[in-house]
Write a structure and sequence with these properties.
The complex is a heterotetramer of chains A (333), B (225), C (122) and D (550). Chain A has 3 domains: 95 residues, no CATH class; 108 residues, Cupredoxins -  blue copper proteins (Immunoglobulin-like, Sandwich), CATH 2.60.40; 102 residues, Cytochrome Bc1 Complex, Chain D, domain 2. Chain A has 8 helices and 12 strands. Chain A starts with a helix and ends with a helix. The longest helix of chain A is centred in the first third of the chain and has 34 residues. Chain A is elongated and about 95 Å long. Chain A has 333 residues and is an alpha+beta fold. Chain B has 225 residues and is mainly alpha-helical. Chain B starts with a helix and ends in an 8-residue tail after the last helix. Chain C has 2 domains: 69 residues; 49 residues, no CATH class. Chain C starts with a helix and ends with a helix. The chains are: A alpha+beta (333), B mainly alpha (225), C mainly alpha (122), D mainly alpha (550). Chains in contact: A-B, A-C, A-D, B-C, B-D, C-D. Chains A and C meet through strand 12 of A and loops of C.
Chain lengths: 333, 225, 122, 550
């Protein structure tokens, strides 16, 4: 822990010069502080060992320089204790770092239950963002301060990566799959969004801004601008428009297909005996490749909707299925 | 081989960089085994990808497997096992100093069996798959039976059996060279290393098929049908 | 080097051994196929692979003469399969656990998956 | 050794591998491992120049935030070409195929490698791969990044992906054949008395490297084969639109490409073990630990690849497993650094150019290795992955490590290879310039990465400009540093003073038993080994056996 202390004080002294010559990104989420502390520890370890090795080498270079061409140096032995020491001490340091880093990672991997879910679609070379309440934006993300936000992300083409350095969060955005990341912004301000996975010609222009707003500003922003219906409402329209509702009837009724009420987040047994968690990716798979998601007691008759839905419509359907789950759970209790 | 001709003190086939013929034989054998390690990982990459998709899309792989003709798969397994036996006997014949005609007979028998394997594969299986539109990327006829998952299974079926068949063809080439070398009296009980290490290769190709047969033809068993 | 000729010839395997191995391999093939027609539930694939593994061992030991060779050859074979095992296990460690939830008690997440996993590992 | 000759040197007097036969045929059909090593040297030098030029233009472009030189499309091709060429066609074959080919038989007291024809074949395979790569570059280039991530490479990129993939596929077989040759040579061709624990550590390192060649390279071959098939046939192997999993490509790619980093650095570690002992006249500190750490690195390198994928949507559980395994590889690397440093203790240290490179290697590799901890740690990797921090880290390992060691080794064995000395003053100046230029180029990139600048950006926000300009300035110094050895080494081949058999007073069969340059089959009298490696204190020899429990 001495390292942390050294690292932090060192960086704080640098802080004065930081305005002229920034060496540190802004620190604007609940996650950032923990990551930075670990970063300082690692910097401390790196500086300590590098300085150690460099100084020893310089000292030996001068002290033991060759003084005569035919000099024969004395023999030295490698004591086992020394070898063990410099095997075991680095191991111990690594163990500490591993547990610390993993603790932070696992903690940061789980969004809090109360998170607001915002949807992100990456495409060459822009970010489409849709709020559950309806507003859409491109390359901009407005979020309220001090409130956990979960991003559910997918890509329309290649792999992208959603990266907000100020929050110390990053996650690849994959086609045909949903990944998520979450953060809770702590400071009102404007921060960079980057695509951090190479995605083609204009990869470096796939950038944008996060606007962290006070709750009142955020509410005002949601109320202003274009007014769309909420995502789950759009999903519900699609659900009947595409004819899904004719087979997937509501809760309590029996249809040609299984009821989707309350199915989200459950573990379902397939007809081949395997068990799968119903998540965003599985719902998507059921829509584009229904034969691969077969529940027992139902016939394999659902047509594929592959190529008929945009990624945005897909997200709306998923949002709708999720909302069914939410209602079901509420009704159940 | 030209190295050997210059040094008459050594047995035929002896290469100058070695100290003894035994060292050369051990080096050759180890070299082949190291090459087979590479081959195991080469096929292994394919098997890994296969295992992942089989695990993720088990139903489709099962359905795809049931479209294959297991009788030909089984026949070909037997054909390859016989060819491994004849290969082993060819080596044994050179090793024990039998007449070169005996060695050549076993080698040619091995070649015939290898060619039979490829023939069965090509005519009764691949040609049939082509007619039925089961060749992904080149001739795939989508239908309710031929789902994208089944297509993926057939990708692996063709890549794996194709890669195996390429190895068989290379093996036939090697066997041809061996027949010529035997006919030219290159081998003796002291020096038959090329035969031995080619045998290792041939048996390896056989082993790959021993795994391919159940993994491709018998997924999920055949008892439902 | 003439005095070491005896040694350099290598082990001559009796024909009877070759024939026995050959018969065992054919029997193994028949057995593999036969077992596929019996419903053994999740055991079909493991049994087929077990038979394939035994067949491979026979080929390696007798046809490929490893039984009569130094340990180095065996080490090479074991290494190759060990590395293949590394590749498969660690790749599957991702592919098959992706949809698992993060849970404060990882073991409770792992338990229900074990029968499912076992089936795909074999 | 440092004075330049005043008069033109006379021809090397004895018959050796260079003057025994003449003519282009005698080189192109040679089976001599030394000549094949030189063929490789020429080939990879050409490839290095291509890769270096691409890097130079990239750094020039990045002087301005909006890009000073080229369109983003061209920039993407530049960094792809730089990566592919440097990784697959320079760094992977660099030390193994040149110094390894030249030195292994000499160091173990053999006439040649076990399979000389295969050795020549592997060079032809390699130049076939190189040619295909150059075809790919000149037929429009390739813009996928050296990692070829799908589905961009298989479906969306309209560049010469298949050409480049075939080039790497074919060059891979050259690696496999070289590794095979080395393993068999080291197992079966050692001189009488040369037991495993008397082997020079360079041999241990090359053995470990060969194992990675043999077990890793076939997997990249099959992966690129599948990628090529998917690109040509549009079947669903890795493309999620067709039911494939793009992360499976990443798994299979990194199964080779992470160990490939150790293909680059392990031989460098071997070279440094030779240099540190030779120029401090000391037995290596903790021989067994250094030898076994090479083997440990070779094995562990295969189980850490998932740390490239912590943010790719890989399972959290797999992330934890790969993280803990990644920390494991730090331990043998640390053991090596400590042992090299301790070897200097009470030594008789001289500072010829090879030693400067070796000491530079230890320092830069220490930084490169320690910054690896940031990327093995899950929480910090989430922030740093895909940024310039990663770029800086692996350049510290591959350029600060592998290239420094390669240059050090080349200078060390140059008198043996050519029979000529190079001007040591120039060599020391070049080594210093490279060290300084390197640090100026890559240190600012650590800071850039922590501040969040993603890699592979053709244009970037203005606040990163100062650090980028510093980095580009360093790159121009580095370019000068690399040009100097190219000039004086070529000069020395004709005009350098004749080298004595053992100019450094080093131990080892290649110095003590072979002339400079060696004869065609290496030794006039086949050597017999009676002592441990690096036995610089012969009068004390009796007491050393088993000092560290070997």
């Amino acid at each position: 822990m001495l390292m942390t202390f050294l690292g932090q004080t060192g960086l704080q002294h640098l802080g004065g010069a930081a305005a002229l010559f920034p060496v540190q990104p802004p620190d604007a989420s609940t996650i950032a502080g923990g990551v930075d502390q670990l970063y300082y520890l690692l910097t401390g370890v790196t500086v300590f060992f590098s300085v150690l090795i460099f100084s020893i080498i310089f000292y030996f270079m001068i002290k033991y320089r060759r003084r005569a061409p035919d000099e024969v140096p004395p023999e030295t032995h490698a004591p086992l204790a020394l070898e063990l020491a410099w095997t075991l001490i680095p191991s111990a340091i690594c163990v500490v770092i591993f547990f610390w880093a993993s603790y932070l990672y696992v903690r940061n991997a789980r969004p809090p239950a109360a998170s607001t879910e915002i949807f992100v679609i990456g495409k060459q070379w822009m970010w489409h963002i849709q709020h559950p309440e309806g507003p859409r934006e491109i390359n901009e993300l407005h979020v309220p301060v001090n409130q956990p936000v979960e991003l559910t992300m997918t890509s329309q083409d290649v792999i992208h990566d959603f990266y907000i350095p100020a929050f110390r969060v990053k996650k690849d955005v994959l086609p045909a799959r949903y990944t998520s990341l979450w953060f809770q912004a702590t400071k009102v301000g404007t921060y960079h969004i980057y695509c951090a996975q190479y995605c083609g010609t204009n990869h470096s222009e796939m950038i944008g801004w996060v606007y962290v707003m006070s709750p009142t500003d955020y509410a005002a922003w949601l109320a202003g601008g274009e007014q769309n219906e909420s995502m789950s409402a759009s999903g519900e329209h699609l659900f009947s428009l595409l004819g899904c509702s004719s087979c997937h009837a509501g809760a309590g009724q029996t249809g040609t297909g299984p009821s989707l009420a309350g199915i989200y987040g459950q573990s379902e047994k397939f007809s081949d005996g395997s068990e799968h968690l119903v998540d965003d990716t599985l719902i998507r798979q059921a829509i584009v490749q229904p034969d691969s998601v077969q529940l027992p007691n139902y016939k394999n008759i659902m047509p594929t909707f592959k190529g008929q839905l945009s990624e945005e419509q897909m997200l709306q359907l998923i949002a709708y299925v999720k909302s069914l789950g939410a209602e079901e759970r509420k009704n159940g209790q | 081989m030209s190295d050997a001709a210059t040094d008459h003190a050594h047995p035929p086939g002896f290469a100058h960089q070695f100290e003894t013929i035994e060292q050369q034989r051990e080096a050759g054998s180890l070299g082949m085994w190291v090459f087979l390690m590479t081959e195991i990982l080469f096929f292994g990459g394919m098997f890994t990808a296969y295992t992942v998709y089989r695990a993720l899309h088990f139903g489709s792989f099962e359905a795809g497997s049931h479209l294959l003709l297991w009788k030909f798969g089984m026949t070909n397994t037997a054909v390859l096992i016989v060819s491994s036996l004849t290969m082993a006997l060819a080596i044994r014949s050179a090793q024990t100093g039998q007449k070169k005609g005996t060695t050549i007979t076993w080698l040619i028998l091995t070649m015939i069996l290898g060619a039979a394997f490829i023939g069965i594969k090509l005519y009764f299986e691949w040609y049939n798959d082509w007619k039925e539109g089961l060749v992904p990327g080149l001739h795939w006829i989508a239908s309710p039976e031929h789902t994208p998952g089944v297509e993926q299974f057939f990708c692996f079926y063709f890549f794996m059996t194709g890669l195996h068949a390429i190895h068989m063809v290379i093996g036939l080439g090697i066997l041809t060279v061996l027949v010529i070398m035997t006919a030219r009296n290159k081998f003796s009980p002291e020096y038959y290393a090329p035969l031995e290490i080619s045998g290792l290769y041939w048996h390896f190709v056989d082993i790959v098929w021993i795994f391919l047969f159940p993994l491709l033809y018998l997924i999920g068993g055949r008892y439902q049908h | 080097m003439s005095d070491s000729h005896e040694h350099s010839v290598g082990h001559v395997v009796p024909i009877s051994v070759y024939l026995a191995v050959f018969v065992a391999l054919l029997a193994g093939t028949a057995l593999t196929t036969g077992v596929a027609f019996i419903d053994l539930g999740p055991l079909n694939t493991p049994i087929a692979l077990l038979i394939a593994f035994i067949k491979m061992t026979l080929v390696i030991l007798f046809f490929m003469h490893v039984k009569y060779q130094p340990g180095l050859t065996r080490l090479a074979i074991i290494c190759a399969f060990f590395w293949l095992g590394i590749m498969m296990t660690l790749t599957l460690s991702d592919e098959l656990t992706r949809s698992w939830e993060m849970n404060p008690k990882p073991w409770s997440v792992l338990m229900p998956h074990i029968p499912h996993l076992a089936r795909f590992f074999f | 050794m440092s004075e330049l000759p005043e008069s033109l040197p006379v021809q090397a007097p004895h018959l050796n591998y260079l003057n025994s036969t003449y003519g282009i045929r005698s080189w192109l059909l040679t089976k001599d491992h030394k000549r094949i090593g030189l063929l490789y040297l020429a080939t990879i030098t050409i490839m290095f120049i291509f890769g270096g030029l691409a890097a130079f233009f990239m750094r020039l472009h990045l002087i301005e935030p909006q890009g000073a030189l080229v369109e983003p499309e061209t920039y993407n091709k530049l960094f792809t070409i730089h990566g592919v060429i440097m990784v697959f066609f320079f760094l992977v074959p660099s030390i193994p195929a040149t110094l390894g080919n030249f030195c292994i038989p000499l160091m173990i007291g053999a006439r040649d490698v076990a399979f000389p024809k295969l050795n020549l074949l592997s060079w032809y395979v390699f130049i076939t791969g190189c040619s295909l790569a150059l075809v790919a570059i000149f037929s429009g280039g390739i813009d996928t990044g050296w990692t070829f991530y799908t589905p961009y490479s298989s479906t969306y990129s309209h560049t010469a992906v298949v050409w480049m993939a075939s080039g790497i596929f074919i060059a891979g077989f050259s690696s496999i054949l070289t590794g095979l040759n080395f393993v068999v040579t080291i197992h079966k061709m050692r001189a009488p008395g040369l037991t495993w624990f008397r082997l020079p550590l360079f041999i241990w390192a090359m053995y470990a490297t060969s194992i990675i060649f043999i077990l890793g390279t076939p997997v990249i071959a099959i992966t690129l084969f599948l990628l090529g098939l998917e690109t040509l046939l549009h079947v669903g192997i890795f493309d999620p639109a067709l039911g494939g999993d793009p992360l499976l490509f990443q798994h299979m790619f990194w199964f080779y490409s992470h160990p490939a980093v150790y293909i680059m650095i392990l031989p460098g570690m071997g070279v440094v073990s030779e240099l540190v002992t030779a120029f401090s006249r000391k037995k290596i500190f903790g021989y067994a630990f250094v030898a076994f750490s090479s083997m440990a690195i070779a094995v562990i390198s295969f189980i850490v690849w998932g740390h490239h994928m912590f943010v790719t949507g890989q399972s959290v559980y797999a992330g934890l497993v790969f993280s803990v395994l990644s920390f494991l590889v730090a331990i043998p690397s640390a053991v090596k650094v400590f042992n090299w440093t301790a070897t200097l203790y009470k030594g008789s240290i001289s500072y010829e150019a090879p030693m400067l490179y070796a000491l530079g290697f230890i320092g830069l590799f220490t930084i490169g290795g320690l910054t690896g901890l940031f990327l093995a740690s899950l929480a910090t990797d989430v922030h740093l992955n895909g940024t310039y921090f990663v770029v800086a880290h692996f350049h510290y390992v591959m350029v600060g490590g592998a290239v420094m060691a390669y240059l050090g080794g080349l200078h060390y064995w140059w008198p043996k290879i050519t029979g000529r000395m190079y001007p040591d003053v120039w060599a020391r100046i070049a080594a210093t310039i490279i060290f300084l230029g390197f640090n100026l180029t890559f240190f600012p990139q650590f800071v850039l990465g922590y501040m969040g600048m993603p890699r592979r950006y053709a244009i970037y926000p203005a606040e990163f400009q100062v650090l980028n300009v510093l980095s580009s300035a360093g790159a121009s110094i580095l370019a000068v540093g690399y040009a100097i050895p190219l000039i004086y080494l070529i000069w020395s081949m004709r005009y350098g003073p004749i080298a004595p058999q053992n100019p450094w007073g080093a131990k080892g069969l290649e110095w003590e038993n072979a002339s400079s340059p060696p004869v065609t089959e290496n030794f006039e009298v086949m050597p017999v080994v009676t002592e441990e490696a690096y036995n610089y204190q012969p009068h004390n020899y009796q007491g050393t056996e088993g000092a560290h429990g070997v």
